[in-house]
Amino acid sequence: MIDSPKSVFQPLITLDIEDFPGYAGRRRKAAFTLFLLWGTTVALHLLSWGSWVILGLMAVLSTHALRVLLARPRVGPTPLPSPTVEDFPANAEATASALAEAWPYVSLLAAAKNEEAVIQRLVTALCHLDYPSDRYEVWIIDDHSTDGTAQRLQELRQRYPQLRVLHRGANATGGKSGALNQVWPDTQGEIIGVFDADAQVPKDLLRHIVPMFEAERVGAVQMQKAIVNRAKNWLTRGQQAEMALDTYFQQQRIALGGIGELRGNGQFVRRNALIQCGGWNEETITDDLDLTLRLHFSGWDVDFLLHPAVEEEGVERSVALWHQRNRWAEGGYQRYLDYWRFIANSRLTPGKTLDMAAFWLIQYGLPTVALPDFAMALLRHRLPVFLPVSGLALSLSLVGMYCGLRRTQRQPHWASALLTLWGNLYMLHWLLVISTMALRLSVRPKRLRWVKTAHQGGEEEG
To answer: How far apart are CA 240 and CA 462, in angstroms?
Structure first.
């Protein structure tokens, strides 16, 4: 059974406002981290035993990588059957009891700012799910749109009784997190789902999602994400390969007892877990990644749903990709600066701690040390000391992307292989994004800034 929304688990930790030091604190910590990483890289080049440190690091990372690759994701629970007339007893009281038992109440949320091109499609899909219509509600938060979004929502409100609309004023703060925080305390759902405005939602998604929350310690579930306009150009094809890579490692890490992560669009959170975590953090630009860590610190697990997938628009221009990836990179990096004490104090299980450390090194550490490593290699006429670790990271990316494409796409082996090669070339942009982000965050004071990704509302092209 899924927990009643009125029963709240005793928190394993309490996250107070003091744990969010603000941007000045982040800059100091970012500068210290950069100094430590760069200094260690230079020292490894100068010390005679530096190569032994790299060999030891490779032994640990290779062992963990092998365990991740060999892990076997568990088969998900059986989806709920499509609701039929027989599911509803004739007696009204019995009907309510049966519905509560078989069909937990779900609240679906989406924040929308200037989404006139896509909002009607999203609302229509969410209001026609294969789930009893009186067992879920849809909330759309119009975040002070200046286009026709508000008018579209008013028209849709007359059409769909389960649709709720909240209009935020010009002085509203907190961005997406603030919009979600303004609404979720008033929702009724035992499970709360969040979508982006451009999401293309499968009709049967709730029948697959709800049974996953029967596991007691599952605090959240992330759906597989796919790129709806993947055939548009070389950038969108690369993003589809990137999503396949993420899908593969999400499943493998969770199977190993590691860190499952939320990805914003298509994320579902147990109400009790969200209460325990205090809602969404309004002092971050990636609310999903921030909530991921707080869920794990609080003793919850984050699970992953392979099928069906939620589709979203990939960005079609390099400038938009640069802004989006910088936001993702900065938000992901900030969460480690914010919660380093919880990590250092072993708030996670040993398995999750090792998994987090290994993937932090590959995702953030290697790109950050690339510049001093390459510079020292040129000065000393030798190979970069982190070259073996980079080779391991590339191998993992190749294997993970190919296997992820095979799991998520119905296409010949050769097509998956070609897309894997292109996808890994495409992924090289992350080296520049993360290395410049780490440097910028260390030296420049920065206010919370979110660059909106424009959505066109185009249909799938292949």
So the answer is: 12
How many other CB atoms sit within 10 Å of the CB of residue 35? 11
Closest among 425, 297, 395 to 352, alpha carbons compared: 297
Structure tokens at 419: 């897309």
pLDDT for the residue numbered 7: 38
The helix (H) or strand (E) run that includes residue 389 is helix 387-408
User: Alpha-carbon Rg of the chain, whole angstroms?
Assistant: 23
Q: Do the beta carbons of residue 222 and residue 249 sit within 8 Å?
A: no
The span from the CA of 267 to the CA of 108, in Å, is 10
Contact 148, 116 (CB under 8 A): yes
* 1: amino acid identity, one letter: M
Q: What is the pLDDT of residue 460?
A: 45
Q: Is 175 left (phi over 0), alpha (psi -120 to 50) or beta?
A: left
Checking DSSP bridges between strand 163-168 and strand 267-270, what pairing results, if any? unpaired
What pLDDT does residue 171 have?
85
Identify whether the C-beta of residue 247 lies closer than 8 Å to the C-beta of residue 268: no
The strand order across the sheet containing 267-270 reads: 163-168, 136-143, 106-112, 191-195, 267-270, 218-227, 301-312
Could you state, in chain order, the average pLDDT of each consecutive group of 10 residues for the chain (462 residues)?
42 48 72 95 94 95 96 90 64 55 91 90 95 95 88 91 90 88 93 95 95 94 94 93 97 95 95 93 90 94 95 93 92 90 85 94 95 95 95 96 94 94 96 94 68 57 40
d(CA 39, CA 200): 46
Q: Are 296 and 257 in contact (CB under 8 A)?
A: no
- Report pTM: 0.88
Hey, what are 424's tokens? 């890994």
